[in-house]
Design brief:
Length: 490
């Protein structure tokens, strides 16, 4: 077995690359090494194709590894551990692992994990014989890219196919001066020099709420501002209410339905001006008001392509752009813009390019929101089922009634199943609390197989586990359905 420098075992010997079309330097050129680019490159390499990945210096692994998913989730883990937050039900409200948590304590863990992940990505690509080119790529013609490295050196090469996986960056309104110290975006928040005493988070999307809950847990007084009247509107409203309750308990204030007019900075911090005339003073302002596709520097016109106002590229169901040999995957094609989906889009784009048979992605996809506590769901919401006049029943399990919930000290967690009254099919799973983002996959698997809650009723699950919540909720739904069916029986 091949073992790379970092000790990670490699696959059994790869098939030798077979030139596909010698008119081109590579069979596939991938621009960007985030989740979408990585998987496109590896999938093509596994088919024996000659593959190149272009990535900017210090960005191996993409936004996901360097400034997005991985650092934010690692920071959350550091916050949970050092604040002792998850253990307070057991050891009291004042329980802490470290009383004076510094930004260095937090970022040490983040840097460690980023470093490891970068090496894992690099090793995987290299052991699959993918050529790595450092620099920024731009199209010269539909098959050729020019890569400019940090020293200004330029290299050109061509690909029979090209995958654009250049991801996204934070959207920055022109009216706001970002000084990378007091006014930052979700990249800049990872370079703060201290834990702020107070913070305004502009944008109550997933990024904004995740960081708001982390800083609130650290003791920062957080105000969340969003022009929409509700937050996380794709989630179950009961779950969002539970989250809001928890955040309020951590002194978070909400200014929903309010637009930011501007931010003033001075020697003592910042003042955020709202369109309604209100002003909010804070040490730091973090903008998380959407993201922009990274296409401005690609010279798309040379490939015969263009992007929309938010920098996104349009693709068909096979991730093919308007130019048939150019594919695009990941954040650069917009919704759902998740690391999870980007990976599979990359893999499928490579398969489509090289005519490798592959099925489409399953329709039921999970969403995981790493707030404190975390949220996860898949399938439909109560509002959607009501709108579509689908008769459903709700089965609920509360963590406080599960032995494992008591053991881990989670009394607030909840799992909710939405079940079709007639067919008993599982239509939706909504979870709030410890391990929600892992637990959701049980429901997802049942739904993907068209399963009913009878599977859960008839199956023995390990005890004591949080998975037991599925059984409890399935029995609850069964009892309610039976009660309605028996009503009126003599
Ligand atoms: C704070 C935050 C938290 C997130 N948390 C989660 C989460 O918990 N779960 C989840 O599933 N998703 C999460 N996401 C979303 C996830 O990170 C993205 O969906 C994912 O990274 C998109 O992958 P991608 O393949 O499009 O490429 P990206 O990861 O965006 O990487 C694109 C790469 O392309 C490179 N590039 C761009 N232009 C060029 C060029 N011209 N030449 C060469 N290289 C170029 C960039 O340098 C970059 O490294 C989060 C995002 C953020 C910002
Ligand atoms: N756990 C996860 O899966 C995860 C975590 C983080 C990010 N992501 C991905 O990243 C994407 C981007 O997240 P995001 O939170 O930046 O974007 P978003 O578009 O979801 O949210 C932006 C919010 O900012 C608000 N806003 C914009 N301008 C404003 C203004 N001037 N004043 C007040 N409010 C304003 C908008 O109303 C919106 O609610 C997400 O859609 C998601 O796909 C996923």
């Amino acid at each position: 077995m091949d073992v790379s420098d970092d000790g990670i075992p490699g696959p059994v010997a790869e098939p030798a690359a077979t030139p596909d079309d010698t008119r081109f330097d590579y069979d596939l050129v991938v621009i960007g090494s985030g989740p979408g680019g990585q998987k496109a490159a590896i999938a093509a390499a596994k088919l024996g194709r000659r593959v190149a990945v272009v990535e900017r210096k210090h960005m191996m692994g993409g936004v996901s590894v360097n400034t997005g998913t991985i650092p934010s989730k690692t920071l959350r883990e550091a916050v949970l551990y050092l604040t002792g937050m998850a253990q307070r039900e057991m050891y009291g409200a004042s329980y802490r692992v470290k009383s004076d948590i510094t930004i260095e304590d937090l970022f040490a863990r983040t840097q460690h994990v980023i470093g490891r992940e970068v090496e894992v990505v690099r090793a995987q690509l290299l052991r699959n014989h993918v050529d790595l080119h450092s620099g920024a790529a731009a199209f010269v013609d539909p098959h050729t890219v020019e890569v400019t490295d940090d020293d200004g050196r330029r290299t050109r090469f061509s690909g029979r196919f090209v995958v654009i996986a250049t991801g996204s960056r934070p959207h920055r309104p022109d009216t706001v001066q970002f000084d990378e110290r007091t006014v930052v975006d979700s990249d800049g928040v990872l370079a703060l020099d201290r834990v702020p005493g107070s913070m305004v988070v502009v944008g109550a999307g997933i990024i904004g709420i995740e960081y708001a809950s982390m800083f609130a847990a650290l003791g920062t007084r957080v105000t969340i501002v969003d022009k929409r009247p509700t937050m996380l509107e794709m989630c179950d409203p009961e779950v969002v209410e539970s989250l809001k309750f928890h955040l309020r308990d951590l002194s978070v204030s909400f200014r929903l339905g309010e637009e930011v007019a501007g931010v003033d900075t001075g020697p003592h911090g910042t003042v955020t001006r709202l369109a309604s005339g209100k002003k909010i003073a804070a040490d730091t302002v973090m903008y998380s008001a959407g993201r922009q596709g990274q296409t401005a520097d690609l010279n798309l016109a040379a490939a015969g392509l263009s992007a929309d106002r938010r920098g996104r590229i349009e693709v068909d169901g096979d991730y093919r752009t308007a130019v048939p040999h150019v594919f695009a995957v990941g954040d650069v094609i917009g919704f759902p813009a998740l690391a999870a989906t980007s990976m599979d889009q990359g893999r499928l784009a490579a398969y489509r390019a090289f005519d490798e048979p592959a099925r489409e992605l399953a329709a039921v996809q999970p969403i995981g929101i790493y707030t404190i506590p975390e949220i996860s769901y898949c399938g439909r919401t109560e509002d959607e089922l009501t709108r579509d006049s689908v008769p459903y029943e709700v089965g609920v399990a509360r963590y406080r009634e599960l032995a494992r919930g008591q053991i881990v000290g989670d009394s607030y967690g909840m799992l909710k199943l939405l079940v079709h009254v007639d067919t008993r099919e599982l239509l939706g799973v909504h979870i709030f609390g410890t391990s929600a983002t892992d637990l959701v996959h049980i429901g997802q698997a049942i739904m993907a197989c068209g399963g009913t809650i009878d599977y859960l009723v008839d199956t023995v699950l390990n005890y004591p586990t949080l998975s037991e919540a599925y059984k409890v909720a399935a029995l609850d739904a069964t009892n309610k359905i039976r009660a309605v069916a028996r009503f009126g029986e003599v």
